[in-house]
Write a structure and sequence with these properties.
The structure is a homodimer. By secondary structure, chain A is of the alpha/beta class. Chain A folds into two domains: 239 residues, Aldehyde Dehydrogenase, Chain A, domain 1 (3-Layer(aba) Sandwich); 144 residues, Aldehyde Dehydrogenase, Chain A, domain 2 (3-Layer(aba) Sandwich). Chain A is built from 15 helices and 16 strands. In chain A, strands 10-9-11-8-7-12-13 form a seven-stranded parallel beta sheet. The radius of gyration of chain A is 24 Å and the shape is globular.
C-alpha cells in the first residue's frame, strides 16, 4: 500500500493542535468563528473562482444535474455558510461542563468533565458547505478536524480551508486545527481510516457506498450516519386527515434526505378509505407508488412492489406501500426492513401508541408527526454534524455534545486503595 | 474463510432475544438474576467438575501458575460470583429513564429515553468469572450477550452458561439472552468481529494482544478496554510522606491491573530527598526499579531504564523512574508515553494541580490520590463491565449506563415540517 506523507504530516499537526485546542477559552474560539465568517464573505472571489473550476471539470466529466447543484457555490450560499458559523458562535460552549460529581465514602471527589474528542476526521462527498460546517462545529468543541472531501470539490474545499484556517489562526487558534487533505486518492482515504495514532473518531458523510466502505475498512472508531429506510404506519384509529398531511409531508417536502418516508404501511380497516385519497394527492405531486397486491387493487395503475422496494432508501419521489392485517404485522415489517432511523405511527389509540414507541428500535420514533423532524435543529440542538444510525456514543441527530467525551477528575487528600 | 454455523445461529437467536429483552420489566430481570445466583451455588458440582477438566488440561499444556490461578474455580469463588449477581439486583435499572425532554416551538415533545444497546459481544480470555459478570450486567440492562471465552476455560464457561441461562429462562427471560460459543476457534472469533447484522457492540476483555486484534479486525463497533501505562508525578510542592504512601499503593497494592502505576516521575528539586526514601520501601516490597541516569545516581544498584521501559505496561512489580527538570517535562513525558488511562500529580500547588487536570488527556486524572481508584466500584457505579480507554461512547470505568443507548421519542399532534 502506498503511504501518503501528507496524511502523516497533517495527522500529526492535527494531534498537536488538539492538545492545545481543548483548553482554548470560549472567547478565543468564538472570535475565531466570527473571523472565519467574515473572511468567507470578504474573500469569496477566490472561493468562487476555485469553485468555477470544479464545476467546469465536473460538467466535462458528465456529473448529474443534482450533483452539479450540490457542488455549485454562489454568493448567496457563501453568505449562508457564514451565517451558519455565526449561529455556532451563539451556542453555549459545552467544554468544561461538569456533568456529574460525587464525593466517595473515602473523601475522594470524583467528577466527570466534558472535554473534546481530540481529532475528528470527516470523509465526505461533493458538498463544499460540509467543509465550513464541520470546521465550525469542531472548533467550537475544541476538536481539531481533518477533512477529506470528494475529488470533484477539491479546489473549492482547499480555497475555503485556506480562508477559514488562516482566519482562525490569526484569531489565536493553533495551526493544524482545520486542515483539508489535498490528495483525493482512494488509497489515501484508506490510509486515513487506519490512522488510529492521530484520529480519535471518523465521521463519514455521504451516500450509502461511502459509509459502508468506511465501516468496513476503518480501524479508527466510526460514527455511522445516514441511511434511513423510514416508515409511517397508519393505524385504524388514526385521524385520516392528519395521516394524509403527515404522509404527504414526510414523502414530498424534501424526498432526497435520510428522514424522508420510504414506505407507507396502512391497516386494512382503513386502507379502502385512506389509500385512494392519499394516493391521489401523492400522484398529483409526481410521487411514483409501488404497492402490495391489495394496494394495487385500491390504487389502479400503480406498479407492484418487490421485496427490494421495501428494502430500498429511494431518496426520491418514489413510495412503497403495503396494507397490513394487524399492528403486529406493521411492527414486524419495520423490524425486518427498517434501518433504525425514524419510524412513525399515526393513531389515536393510547396502547398502540405506547407499544410502538417502546417496541420499535430506532433513533427516533414518532406518534402523530412527520419523520422529517429527525434533525439537530428541529430537535433543538442548535447544530448538526450528522445523524447517527448506530447505537454507540450517539444515536440520532448529533450536536455539539456529541463531539465531546468526558474525563474523570479526582481530587484527593492522600487517598490510597485499601 | 470458514463459516461457523453456530455463530450465525446464536447471533440470530441473540438478536431475536434482544427484541424482547428491552421491554422486560425490572421485576422479571431481577428475579432472573436472583435465580441465576441461587442456581450457581446449587449446581456448583457440575461447574467445579467441568472446571477441574479445564484446569487439568491447562496444567498439561504447561500454563503459567498465574493463568492457572485465574482459571481455577472453588466453592468460595462461585459464592463470590453469585454475590456479584445479587449486587446487580440491588442496582437501579437504567432502562426507561428519560434523560432529557423538551417541547419544541411547534408543540412536538421530544424526549430521550434510555434503551439497551441490543446484542453485546464479549471476547475474553481465561477467566470464567467474566462469564457470570458480563451475563448479569447485560441482563440487568436488557441486552442479549454473546460470550466467546478462551479455549482454556471452555468447559467451565459452558457449564456456567448452562446453569445461568436455564435459570434465567425459567424466570421468564427469552431464550438466547445469554449464550456462550462452543467453538473457540480463532477464525470463529474473526467471524464474530464481523457480524454487524447481529452484534451492536463488541467488548474485548483481556491482554493487549487480544484487544489489538479485535480493534484491527472488527467491523462491529468496539469499546477498547484496558491498557494502562499510568504515571504518578511527584511535584516539588508535594507532601512527600503522602507521595510515598500513594506511590507504594499505586505500585504494589495490586500490580497486575491496568490502573497500577508503571512510571514514577519526580521533580529534580525533591528527587534527592524523595527517591532514596521511597526506593527503600519499594525494594523491600520486591519492586524492581529501572531509572534514568539521575535516578540511578540516587538509588545505587538499580538498572538503567530504556525507552522501551517507559513505554511498557509492566503489570508486575517493576517500576520505571525518571527525574524531570520541570512540570512541563512531566506533562510531555505523560503525553508521549501515556495511554490515556489514569495519571496523577502529587502537589500542594494550586496552579499546577489545576493545569495537570486540564492538560493531561486521560480517562482519569488525579490530584493527591492513588491511580488505583479508576474502577467502577470505586467511582460509585456499583458495577463494572470494563474500563474504556477510548473516547467514543464511554471513557473510564463502564457501569450499567454504559451498556445503554438512547432512543428519541417524539409525541406530536399532527406536526409536519414547513
Amino acid at each position: 500500500m502506498t503511504s501518503f506523507p501528507e496524511l502523516l504530516l497533517k495527522g500529526k499537526k492535527a494531534k498537536d493542535a488538539a492538545y492545545f485546542l481543548g483548553n482554548l477559552s470560549s472567547q478565543v474560539k468564538d472570535k475565531a468563528l466570527e473571523a472565519m465568517a467574515f473572511e468567507l464573505e470578504a474573500k469569496q472571489e477566490a472561493i468562487l473562482a476555485a469553485n468555477a473550476l470544479d464545476v467546469e471539470a465536473a460538467r466535462q466529466k458528465g456529473l448529474s444535474k443534482a450533483l452539479l447543484d450540490r457542488l455549485l457555490l454562489t454568493p448567496k450560499r457563501i453568505e449562508e455558510m457564514a451565517e451558519g458559523l455565526m449561529a455556532v458562535v451563539c451556542l453555549p460552549d459545552p467544554i468544561g461542563e461538569m456533568t456529574h460529581q460525587c464525593r466517595r465514602p473515602n473523601g475522594l471527589d470524583v467528577g466527570r468533565i466534558r472535554v473534546p474528542l481530540g481529532v475528528v476526521g470527516i470523509i465526505y462527498e461533493a458538498r463544499p458547505n460540509v467543509t465550513v460546517d464541520a470546521a465550525g462545529l469542531c472548533l467550537k468543541t475544541g476538536n481539531a478536524v481533518l477533512l477529506r472531501g470528494g475529488s470533484e470539490a477539491i479546489r473549492s474545499n482547499l480555497a475555503i480551508t485556506q480562508v477559514i484556517a488562516s482566519a482562525a489562526e490569526e484569531a489565536g487558534v493553533p495551526a493544524g486545527a482545520i486542515q483539508t487533505l489535498e490528495t483525493t486518492d482512494r488509497e489515501a482515504a484508506q490510509q486515513m481510516m487506519r490512522m488510529n495514532e492521530f484520529l480519535d473518531v471518523l465521521i463519514p458523510r455521504g451516500g450509502a457506498g461511502l459509509i459502508q466502505s468506511v465501516l468496513k475498512n476503518s480501524t479508527v472508531p466510526v460514527i455511522e450516519t445516514g441511511v434511513g429506510n423510514c416508515h409511517i404506519y397508519v393505524d385504524y384509529c388514526a385521524d385520516l386527515q392528519m395521516a394524509e398531511n403527515i404522509v404527504i409531508n414526510a414523502k414530498t417536502q424534501r424526498p432526497g434526505v435520510c428522514n424522508a418516508m420510504e414506505t407507507l404501511l396502512v391497516h386494512k380497516n382503513v386502507a379502502g378509505k385512506f389509500l385512494p385519497q392519499v394516493a391521489r394527492r401523492l400522484l398529483q405531486l409526481d410521487v411514483e407508488l409501488r404497492g402490495c397486491p391489495r394496494s394495487v387493487a385500491l390504487i389502479p395503475g400503480i406498479q407492484e412492489a418487490t421485496d427490494e422496494d421495501y428494502a430500498t432508501e429511494f431518496l426520491d419521489l418514489i413510495l412503497a406501500v403495503k396494507v397490513v392485517d394487524t399492528f403486529e404485522e406493521a411492527l414486524e415489517h419495520i423490524r425486518f426492513y427498517g434501518t433504525g432511523h425514524s419510524e412513525a405511527i399515526i393513531t389515536n389509540d393510547y396502547q398502540r401508541a405506547r407499544n410502538f414507541t417502546r417496541r420499535v428500535d430506532a433513533a427516533a420514533v414518532y406518534v402523530n408527526a412527520s419523520t422529517r423532524f429527525t434533525d439537530g435543529f428541529q430537535f433543538g440542538l442548535g447544530a448538526e454534524i450528522g445523524i447517527s444510525t448506530q447505537k454507540l456514543h450517539a444515536r440520532g441527530p448529533m450536536g455539539l455534545n456529541e463531539l465531546t467525551t468526558v474525563k474523570h477528575v479526582c481530587y484527593g487528600s492522600g487517598q490510597v486503595r485499601e
